[in-house]
From TrEMBL:
One of the record's GO cellular component terms: cytoplasm
PROSITE patterns: PCMT (PS01279)
Protein's recorded name: Protein-L-isoaspartate O-methyltransferase
Keyword terms of this UniProt record: Methyltransferase, S-adenosyl-L-methionine, Transferase
Organism field: Thlaspi arvense
EC number: 2.1.1.77
Amino acid sequence: MKQFWNPNSINKNKAMVENLQNYGVITSDEVAKAMESVDRGIFVPDRSSAYVDSPMSIGYNVTISAPHMHAMCLQLLEKNLKPGMRVLDVGSGTGYLTACFAVMVGSEGRAIGVEHIPELVASSVKNIEASVASPLMKEGSLSVHVGDGRQGWAEFGPYDAIHVGAAAPEIPEALIDELKPGGRLVIPVGNIFQDLKVVDKNSDGSVSIKDETSVRYVPLTSREAQLRGE
Ligand code: SAH
């Protein structure tokens, strides 16, 4: 597993962001500002290792991604996360990345999280309430929903940006359908060997797909299969 740093002193969210900038993972001011403002420590079960560059168990056989993966996905989607834009986060888990998205698109935009474990949705709402994104949730520009994210969330689409935080066997058609022309989907695809794919919808509705990097995510699957540990 790739890891950029592993500090053992008292960790700070700002230092985590600075490390990601120093390693060239974060290159945009908007991404840095969003990650600085959303304290990762609020979202993880064990605050003492919240800022270590490593995934962490959040129960239900899944993990919160490592900070460098969150940063990489925010960077890949940055141009589709401008104020006023619409973003869908499939497999929103702790709500951390959904909160970062919401901060970037702001109160004129719309950030939607979809997660199929109801308990994780409930705790993500509490996490978001304790974070800088709380006012956005109160005013309705940020919301998290219980559902099967393989279907996307058509109610608030089409989206400028869709992020999937779990690996799909193939790209779900519904997610491509819910992209705007000019929209971008970032999704890990594969089983044991996975690629982070970047899917751009062109103005004529066709899609261009490229592989960004090899990754290791938990599967995008049914709730039952996940809870059985498959
Ligand atoms: N991005 C989140 C969570 C990553 S783990 C974070 O970093 O905190 C992947 C998440 O996807 C888990 O919470 C898991 O429960 C969820 N998931 C897996 N399959 C899903 C599906 N079909 N629909 C919705 N959520 C799903």
